[in-house]
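Hi Y.,

Following your request, here is the sequence exactly as I used it, all 317 residues.
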Amino acid sequence: MVGGESRARGARRIDVSAAPPPLQLRGEARAAKAKPHTLIGISPLSVDADTDALAARDLLVFAAREAGALALEFFNRGARTSAKVVTKAGGSPVTDADLAADALLKRRLQGALPDAGWLSEETVDDFERLSRRSLIVVDPIDGTRAFVIGDSRWAVSVALVVDGRPVAGVVHAPALGETYAAARGGGATFNGATLVPAASWPPRAAAGPKLVVEAMASELGVSVEIIPRVPALAYRLCLVARGAVDFAVAAENSHDWDIAAADIVLEEAGARLIDAWGERLRYNSRQVRRGALLAAPEAAATRLIKGFRAAVGWKPD
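Below is the corresponding structure, written out as tokens. Let me know if you'd prefer a different format.
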């Protein structure tokens, strides 16, 4: 559900009508006079453990909104995109809009976060990022197939990871006018209002692969409505943070760029994104492909994990 602005841990409403304020570290770097980044008027940030996560979130929101506006120039609601579409080696589509949004985000965010590595679905991974403590994780258009056919349920997904966990993230669905954002310790928001996941039991609605969700429901002895397929995985996971569904499942073979931003949104809203071991995810490793994942409110996760494990055939090593 979407809570009120007065919630103690809630984040303030995000104003993206102007460029975000300079990003600075606490301590000595705060007094440093860095030359402003000429593209969006922000100062470069040397990312460290004490990064101002709220400022990082605002930077990501600003960049994601800009990338989303660019992608919208190629989007035709209910009709095929005007962008050129090609098929990648793995069989998935990529468009000129994906590549343009990716290039824009890379310019904006690497200029603002010069010490961070880069991982994107549309950029070749050279593994140089593995030597960095911080990492920008990007899917310029999550749900490209939906984008191509004029389905509005696609999103720009961007996260900043420090020491293996996201500290800020945004999932921006421009065709829907929806923005999910979060900062470590600053709460999660939906269009500026504080997010609180559903906490009822038994669960009544879920998102994800039909066979997996049905198997979970059978194992748990509950009846669950499965909402129509949501093509953008990051957006699907954020529905749990919003309380629109009680849990969501990601089939195996998702990638870090699909999930990192949604992960921090879920965590700050009071939910979890976990694997079959029940563990939160770690990022910036050589392997970026994931097994099946479960997104669930904290209050229900320990009960849902039993059904999840049975549904995906998990067995401890």
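Residues 205-312 form a domain with the D-Maltodextrin-Binding Protein; domain 2 fold (CATH 3.40.190.80).

Thanks again,
Q.
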